[in-house]
Specification:
The protein is about 50% helix and about 10% strand. With about 150 residues, the chain is mainly α.
């Protein structure tokens, strides 16, 4: 699995117009998922159970810390509409407040920022609430626009 992902990255790096950084991130996520699946299998083995559980916990913490808001824009914008132009297509998400966590969606048509719907706010809390509570949280690492 790892060899295949490395080969994919090497081939892509030689091509123009390939976002290698994004590709590396996607490849890492696939490898982490494979490791987590193997750890779940090992969690049934009494001799390896403690180490497998620690690995699973570590991978899950890492996954939560690096969730990219851009992958959830459609989910967060359900029933959302720009307050300026009325369009419903989102370009980005920007934080309006960290404590308590609140965000606005940036309209793709006009660039205006409009608050999330209550349901979008609930989804934001579910995705980022635990991560945002950490003192060292860097929203840019999760894809939030300035």
């Amino acid at each position: 699995m790892l060899a295949g992902q490395l080969e994919l990255i090497n081939q892509a790096a030689a091509r123009p117009n390939v976002d290698v950084a994004k590709l590396k991130a996607q490849c890492f996520d696939l490898v982490a998922d494979a490791i987590a699946a193997q750890a779940e299998t090992l969690a049934g083995d009494p001799g390896a159970q403690a180490n497998a559980r620690r690995l699973i916990s570590s991978l899950e913490s890492h996954r939560q810390a690096l969730v990219d808001v851009r992958l959830h824009l459609i989910e967060l914008s359900e029933d959302w509409q720009c307050s300026v132009c009325g369009q419903d297509v989102v370009r980005a998400a920007a934080l309006s407040r960290v404590s308590p966590l609140e965000a606005q969606l940036v309209c793709k048509a006009c660039g205006a920022k409009t608050a999330l719907t209550p349901e979008g706010q609930r989804k934001l809390q579910k995705l980022f609430g635990a991560v945002a509570a950490g003192a060292a949280w860097n929203p840019a690492m999760n894809g939030f626009a300035p």
